[in-house]
Amino acid sequence: MKKNIFSFNLKWIFILLLISVFAVGETSSLLAQDRGKEIRIGDGKGDWGYPNPYRHYPRGPGYVRMSWVFDTLIWKDKDGYIPALARSWRYDPDSMSFVFELREGVQWHDGKPFSADDVAFTVDYFIKHPYAWVPMGAVAGAKADGPNRVTITLKKPYAPFLSYVGGTMPILPKHIWENVDDPKRYSDPGAFIGTGPFTFIDFNKAKGTYLYEANEAYYLGQPKVDRLIYIKTGKPMMALLSGKADLVNIRPDMAKILGKKGMTVIENQRGWNKKIMINHKKPPFNDKRFRKALAHAINQQEIIAKAHRGFGSPASFGLLSLDHEFYNPNTPTYAHDPAKAREILESLGFQRNGQGFYEKDGRPLDVELLASNITVAGESVSDRDGEVIKRELEKTGIRVHLINMEQASTDTRIRNWDFDLAISGHGGLLGDARILNMMISPKMKGSVNSARYGANKELLALLNAQVAEMDPEKRKRLVWKIQEVYADELPAISLYYPASMSAYNHEKGVHWYYTKGGLALGVPIPQNKTTLIK
Amino acid sequence: MVSGPHQTAGMLSQVITFFLAALTMVYLSYALPRFLPGDFVTATYAGANVTLTADQEAGLRAYFTQDEGFGDYLLRLATLDWGYSYAFLTPVSDLFLGALPWTLLLLGAANLISMSIGFVTGVEAAWRHGSLTEKGLVGGMTVLEGIPEICTGVILLIVFALNLQWFPAAGAETAYSDLGFFSRLIDIAHHLTLPLATLVLAYFPGNFLLTRNSMMMVIKAHYIETARAKGLPPRRIRYAHAARNALQPIVTRFGLRLAFMITGALVVERINSYPGLGTLLFNAIQARDLPVIQTVVLFSSLIVLVVILGMEGVYRIIDPRIRHAR
Question: Where are the strands (E) in A11-96, listed by range?
Fold first, then answer.
């Protein structure tokens, strides 16, 4: 009797479990019924803020979520710049101004007509209420000449204008924003009225999901899908294979499996680099000879092989990507050469102690190396480079204390110059060469991946000159020189470009691609709005 | 039940103790998150596609970090103003209440299920002390208890989401599915299965072992023998006489699990990309979104207090000895 009841209990629990598993499994096929054509994009973090200029997070995925709703004057497709709200544009060197001829008949999502007034208003608004993505320092103002022409005048020649303003600045509707004083807090539905191919419907903060619907009246063509949805998923491969997502970022080692399963895998050019930040304000790191010894001690290939299973390629020491049109092939390089590194260290007065580590005047050379998870194209990636670098430096005779911390803690120490060496990284290496100024200039005090290096006056002069040079050929020569000087100074050491890949389900009829030079000012994400236009 | 002067004084001192504890927690929720290195501006703009000059940084910092004293913080809380999230630029209450139902659903269901299954199997196993089933169950549960949820969670995902594709790997429901009420319920249950199973597998062995052990002590008691001698049906002896007295530890465990509701599911929420307070807290800490961290920390500590207070009451119901104790 006793035994009976017990086995009865267990049996029922098991049967109930089985029934519920199958019942639920069955209904899932029911759910897959047609809801109109839609595209689902998966992302590991999910939440990137509300999709408008003042409320999206200042990273690439935040900008891209906004770019479906708001248009720029010009945009990029596979081959380069294409007209967007502007039909054509030209630069007039005498008046230092860009003249944009605007498209006619464009409507805002609320049905009001778009005009040159909106563009002029947007320029003024961004001057008054800065939007970090669009630096307005070089812009004097804008004027509408009639309904379809706008002239944006510069204070001084500014070569990155087309990339940073023309191709990145989202145009705001004047009739809505002229009444808004605190744009960050403005959250009415009007805050999401743009001219883009999709209208913004919902952002679920808890779930990290976004919903957009097609703007049938889009001036560049009808959208290919009725709905565009972002979902959050920590398991991109599973989401793609189970049909929950149609496009995801993937780790390079998933590429082979996904290819076999019929997914299309695309790889980006080399636009993102991992690098070692150096506290060049304190000895011995303030001596460029010491920094060169570090460069010789580090083996770029070894990091790629050990920490990334070979998925990556060694970086240029001149910062700009090897794929950039302004890349200088004569940039100095530092071959992996521990003997050379030791030679330099010994010439600087360091001597090996009994344990084989260097010391100077009886004080050991102890170097602290900070490492943390780093966000790459929106996905947080844990760091495995620290261990490899530590081993290589110690093989050379430099004792290293590796400290792994959470990203914001590491970033804060870098920002406050409270570190020796730190592993960091950033993208933008395929976009406009202004990235050199951002990643080198000492003015970027609030940045944690900029070298903020002011010790070489020639370098600073070159940086200022290149952004003011409107002739592309002359500018290219300046940028070449910058790479040579930078690689000789080594205010930071670029390590490698990790392979950056996405995979998508081509059965959906959408063929995604990585935009050459990145979206807008250089976002390395293949979610270009032109892909979803017929 | 007549409350004597003794009890009234006891209650009063208890209330004062709880009030002081609550105040301490409010202070900690205010002060602790401030010790995090870095602030919102650095955490958000580091590694962004934009770099900040000193002026830009100062401007943002002035906008985002209005420093308030503890007095202002208290006053704000008293008026039920939970502040404004730096990252979302929306009221914290929106974020908190948006995440709360999912945590309640996941953790509530996990605790209820694992407590009921654990309790019943524990009672039955203790009753069959010495049998092969009991030995097998105790051995199996001890092993299961040792496997962390991060491990079971990933295994379940690989088997049921990736290979068999019976269950979705992420989320709480199909995003923007426009389903009817019942289909939506099924969809939610479908998404809930894997995270729920992970938590049940993590919680239930502990409940089983705890119940079995307390039952082992109870069934040796004389009153059980008396009940048997009276010829009562075995099931009645087991549950009405024995199990009731073994209930207290399991209720304590249930309460404490609920109390750690917010942080308890953090790992599972992360693995399954499930929305909830754990995810909210995790993201807020990463972004140094101070008002959100403060609110979640405050609530998670206050819940512990409330649950402990509530359990006192429950003990009185399930165990008359406490009610009559001085």
Answer: 38-43, 74-77, 80-83, 86-92
Q: Which residue of B has its CA nearest to A209?
A: B175
Phi then psi for residue A399, to 5 deg, are -75, 130
CA B45 and chain centroid, separation: 33
ipTM for this model: 0.83
List of residues 6+ apart from A350 with CB closer than 8 A: A358, A359, A360, A365
**How are beta strands A80-83 and A74-77 bridged, if at all?**
antiparallel
CB B254, CB B111: distance < 8 Å: yes
Provide the CA A52 distance to its chain's centre, in angstroms: 18
**Phi/psi-derived region of residue A430, left when phi > 0, alpha when psi is between -120 and 50, beta in every other case:** alpha
Q: Answer whether A522 touches B (CB < 8 Å).
A: yes
Q: What is the pLDDT of residues B259-270, one digit of tens each?
A: 777 777 888 998
State the CB neighbour count (10 A cutoff) for residue A213. Answer: 18
Tell me the chain B residues in contact with residue A9 when contact means C-beta distances shorter than 8 Å.
120-121, 124
CA dist B26 and B169 (Å) reads 37
pTM, entire model: 0.87
Which helix (H) or strand (E) segment is A309 a member of?
A: none
Looking at residue A66, its amino acid is M
Q: How many residues does chain A have?
A: 534
Q: Is A32 on the interface with B (CB under 8 A)?
A: no
Task: Please tell me what DSSP assigns to residue B17.
Answer: H
Distance CA B247, CA A445 (A): 61
Closest in B53, B128, B273 to A443, CB measured: B53
Continuous H helices in chain B:
5-31, 40-45, 54-64, 70-78, 92-127, 132-146, 149-156, 181-218, 222-230, 234-236, 247-259, 261-264, 266-271, 277-287, 290-318, 320-324
For A240-280, how does the pLDDT look when each residue is reduced to its tens digit (9 = 90+)?
Answer: 998 889 999 998 989 999 999 999 999 999 989 999 999 99
Residues B57, A445: C-beta atoms closer than 8 Å: yes
d(CA A509, CA A516): 22
- Using CA atoms, how far apart are residues B116 and B243, in angstroms rounded to an integer? 12
